[in-house]
Amino acid sequence: MLKLVVTDMDGTFLNGEEKIPERAFPLIKKLHEKGVKFAVATGRQYNNVMKLYEDFDEEIIVMSDNGGIMYDDGEKTLLNAARSREELEQVIQTVRSIDGARLALAGVNSAYVFASDIDDKFSEEINFFFETLTMIDSLDDIPEDELIFTICVNHRDGSEKNLKPYFAHLEDKYKIVVSNPHWIDMMNPYVNKGRAVKMIQEKYDISYEETMVFGDYLNDVEMMQTAHYSYAMDNAHPDLKKIANFIAPSNVEEGVISVLENFLSMAFKD
Questions:
Q1: Are residues 22 and 151 both part of a single domain?
Q2: Mean pLDDT, 10 residues at a time, the chain of 270 residues
């Protein structure tokens, strides 16, 4: 019996046009009608996710900011802890030592980007992931009561090779994950999508065997470990494919939708 479906967005649920497939919306409704909870687990900003699903806010659970913020049943819960300004400054100094690196600081109310980092390409990328965005010149421009949870670092020539090695000295303080080919996300060590999924499983008494998850990149590793039906996309990072129990067709082929439609046709024959 299936009770919970959780999917990543970029490279997973979104199609080749980086949009939610039209086939998805009736499918989400059908899952809801059948008592199967549908959740989105993503590195995207909470406000960005809710804009895409604004007509389905009662039918979905949102695990945004790589599991740092949860929205379920009308309640928003923070699962992360804020970084101090001293910690942020340390990371910023490291970023500034890397040629071609730039960053965004993800907070509760907004994401913050240094104006000196902005060019047309970077502007396009950050506007894709962050719905609420504030330009700053220094950390002093961020309101004192703002909580910064995640540091997102970008390199257009590749994050795994050009960024991650430079932050090895901070791995005792942060969980550092390659979230897509051009970004790494730096969070508190205990924050991940898998922890958020387990909280939902415990809340609704849903087991490992009753859970299905989909992902494509290394910020989905812990999530893969929460479900028997763990699917890495055909376009997924090779290391994620090694730990997933199943492979789904690529996001370009709308693989999540295909797997769910096939599963529902077998499990809920009308």
A1: no
A2: 95 92 90 93 86 73 91 85 91 95 92 94 88 94 92 94 92 90 91 95 97 96 97 97 98 96 79
